[in-house]
Design goal:
Elements (H helix, E strand, L loop, with lengths): L1 H42 L6 E3 L4 E3 L2 E7 L8 E6 L5 E2 L10 E7 L1 H4 L9 H9 L6 E5 L7 H15 L3 E6 L28 H12 L1 H11 L3 E6 L17 H9 L5 H17 L3 E6 L20 E3 L2 E2 H22 L2 E3 L1 H4 L15 H28 L2
Parallel strand pairs: 3-9, 6-7, 6-8, 8-10, 10-13
Antiparallel strand pairs: 1-2, 3-4, 5-7, 11-12
GO molecular function: hydrolase activity, acting on ester bonds
Pfam family, one: Lipase_GDSL_2
Keywords: Hydrolase, Membrane, Transmembrane, Transmembrane helix
């Protein structure tokens, strides 16, 4: 009996060793295959629709089917399409040199991610001024969350190679309090750590997914090669309400605003670099200041005091607006000093929740209003500078 028990015990150990050995072998093969596949996909990936230059990664030929519950003033079902350049809008014309080519660069207020195709303000601007400039081509190169740090990378790695005639920069909001590239700026960059302020394991997962061709391919296949369905709920929307207020003492307001000043010289340098890069490459830069719903006055829709409205636990509408205006003032001053065409959208855009679904993002009506303001400026400007001057040569 003792001998039989020893034999059974020996057999059990052998079985465990065999399972462990085979498990390690399978793991080894999986790692080797993953590494080889990663290398091959980095050389050539026929499925993953991303443009990869030195740093920037752009989705190309991508369609998003958006379902938005609880977000007012936008279509509940919307289609958001990226073309072969990774931007919103028509494909580039074959006779590129015969068109007035314009790109719009900015963050989420330029991309208008939750607005369907043709309802984002760059698309509607193009429609408005097309009669004045028949050969106009406009693409929306806005990227959610990008600041001037990300704009410069996009410009250096990709846009200057396209060599459009004009680039419009709607800037400011994502630069407030920022002194380095991080967060959303890194979500379109390879070989960077993506930190969106979540738990470390979530940030690590985003970083791996962003930089791995294998993971990207798996996600692509699981979601559908060309179409990605995204569902959003009312947590992305926060309506202004007369009772939701925050009082800030004048002395505290001044202390908070004083903390902004050290960031402004570096912001000016970044904007100046955008302007200089464009001009060195024969591209005309045009600057647009960033508007907000909050800041002053009363919302004509909800009758909310937009200065006292509580933006967050430490900031009301007045403070948020004055912080942003510090950056807008830098943009205005630089435009004047460097003779850059400026559209002061921050001062021209009406403060009404008809036009904003939160404190900064545009509803469909808001995108229409932005396109109206921008078109009234650029229509005559483009017609005189580019169309008339070319046709009279």
């Amino acid at each position: 009996m003792l001998k039989l028990a020893r034999i059974q015990n020996y057999s059990g150990h052998n079985f465990l060793r065999l399972v462990l050995r085979r498990g390690l072998y399978v793991l080894y093969l999986a790692v080797v295959v993953a590494i080889l596949l990663e290398v091959c996909l980095r050389i050539y990936n026929p499925l993953n629709p991303r443009i990869k230059n030195e740093k920037i990664i752009l989705p190309v030929s991508k369609t998003y089917e958006l379902t938005m519950d609880g977000l007012p003033s936008v279509d509940r079902k919307a289609i958001h399409t990226k073309n072969s350049l990774g931007f919103r809008g028509e494909e580039p014309p074959k006779d590129w040199s015969k068109h007035l080519t314009v790109l719009t660069v900015g963050g989420s207020t330029t991309e208008c991610f939750f607005l369907g195709d043709g309802t984002d303000w760059p698309a509607r601007m193009s429609q408005r001024i097309h009669s004045q400039v028949p050969d106009l081509w406009v693409n929306n190169a806005g990227l959610n969350g990008h600041s001037t740090f990300g704009h410069q990378v996009l410009l250096d790695d990709y846009l200057i190679k396209l060599h459009p005639n004009v680039i419009l920069f709607l800037i400011g909001i994502n630069d407030v309090g920022k002194d380095k590239m991080d967060g959303f700026d890194n979500t379109m960059l390879k070989n960077t750590y993506v930190d969106l302020g979540d738990a470390w394991w979530k940030n690590l997962g985003r970083t791996i997914a962003q930089n791995s061709e294998v993971v990207g391919l798996i996600r692509l296949v699981s979601r559908g090669i060309t179409t990605q369905k995204l569902n959003f709920h009312d947590n992305i929307y926060r309506a202004v309400h007369p009772s939701d207020t925050l009082a800030i003492a004048p002395t505290d307001m001044q202390k908070e605003l004083a903390q902004v000043k050290p960031f402004l010289p570096a912001y000016r340098e970044r904007v100046m670099k955008l302007v200089s890069t464009c001009r060195q490459k024969g591209i005309e830069p045009i600057l647009i200041t960033q508007p907000l719903l909050v800041g002053f006055g009363n919302d004509p829709v909800s009758h909310t005091d937009l200065a006292k409205f509580r933006v967050n636990e430490r900031e009301n509408g007045e403070l948020f607006w004055k912080r942003l205006e510090s950056y807008n003032d830098v943009t205005r001053a630089l435009a004047a000093d460097q003779h850059v065409h400026l559209i002061d959208l921050a001062r021209k855009m009406p403060k009404s929740s008809e036009y904003f679904y939160d404190d900064m993002h545009f509803t469909e009506a808001g995108a229409g209003k932005v396109s109206e303001i921008v078109s009234e400026d650029l229509g005559p400007y483009f017609h005189a500078k580019y169309y008339v001057s070319q046709t009279t040569r």
